[in-house]
Amino acid sequence: MSERTVAVLAGGLSHEREVSLRSGRRLAGALRAVGTTVREWDADAALIERLRTERPDAVVIALHGGEGENGAIQAVLELLDVPFVGTPAPACRRAWDKPTAKAEFARAGLNTPDWIALPHATFRELGAQAVLDAMVERLGLPLMLKPDQGGSALGAQVVSNATDLPAAMVSCLAYADTVLAERFVAGTEVAVSVVHDGPEPRALPPVEVEAHGGIYDYTARYTPGATKFHCPARLDAAMLDLLRETALAAHHLLGLRDLSRMDAVVDTEGRVQILEVNVSPGVTDTSLLPTAVAAAGMDLGRLFATLVERAVERSRG
């Protein structure tokens, strides 16, 4: 790899700040290990001036949630003509808004759990209980509730009893103004990362997620030992191929670039149900992308160094 100076952006002001800082530290260390000069910068009021006066060869975004995934930082980097690893701003916005992405999947014939997204105002204006009753009648129980935007499963919870719905809705609305309610899908939870480190994007080995508490929530994601990962997933070869094909289809459909991660469930009928696609996969010690990279026999630093080279070449082109 040729030597580059790369700025790793981590932190920010989202609910996922601490997770982002962990991702940023690990990513910076991995890049330094392969000879890259790394600057670790927060996404704060000093960022634009730093980008102008200490212009790096490229930026790697390790921000999770908020401006790191909704296209805001990407739009600023495009405005300043700074090369960066990751998805362009418009496609980030499509993937970030879960109802929008799910509608894209459904239109393309990809399976995603049936859902409804409703803003807080709807419950206030039409009567919370009447709306909740209609939601249960349509989607059944159990339900998966989650913010319509956001990551790390913050605010997400499974509700099996209708009497628990009001409190669960209040908890979910603490993270967003709109709640996405999905029909809960039982099955094998998997994650498939896509990387574009060669002529074409390719899917890495699917990772099976076995959360000891049964639900892969925030605690299960970031507490060492709370979740067991199997890579490749304990599924037959045909299903592993289907998972890779589905992840690539979702990646192309949303117009994603460089890397992404599809979260899905293989249901009891053997269908791949897409939950969401992440444009800024975590790289903490308990994250899924590094697990898949290691299972593929790859080095995390070399992978991102290759993606940096691609970003620089795109800028020249």
Automatic annotation (TrEMBL):
In what pathway does it function?
A: Cell wall biogenesis; peptidoglycan biosynthesis
EC class (word): ligase
Keywords on record: ATP-binding, Cell shape, Cell wall biogenesis/degradation, Cytoplasm, Ligase, Nucleotide-binding, Peptidoglycan synthesis
* A GO molecular function held by the record: D-alanine-D-alanine ligase activity
Which SUPFAM superfamilies does the record cross-reference, listed alphabetically? Glutathione synthetase ATP-binding domain-like (SSF56059), PreATP-grasp domain (SSF52440)
Q: What is its EC number?
A: 6.3.2.4
Q: Using the UniProt record, give the first listed, main subcellular location.
A: cytoplasm
Q: Which reaction does it catalyse?
A: 2 D-alanine + ATP = D-alanyl-D-alanine + ADP + phosphate + H(+)
Q: Where in the cell is it found?
A: Cytoplasm
Q: Where is the ATP-grasp domain?
A: 102-309
Q: What does this protein do?
A: Cell wall formation.
What does the sequence similarity comment in the record state about its family?
Answer: Belongs to the D-alanine--D-alanine ligase family.
Name-wise, this protein is: D-alanine--D-alanine ligase
Q: What is the lineage of its organism?
A: Bacteria, Bacillati, Actinomycetota, Actinomycetes, Pseudonocardiales
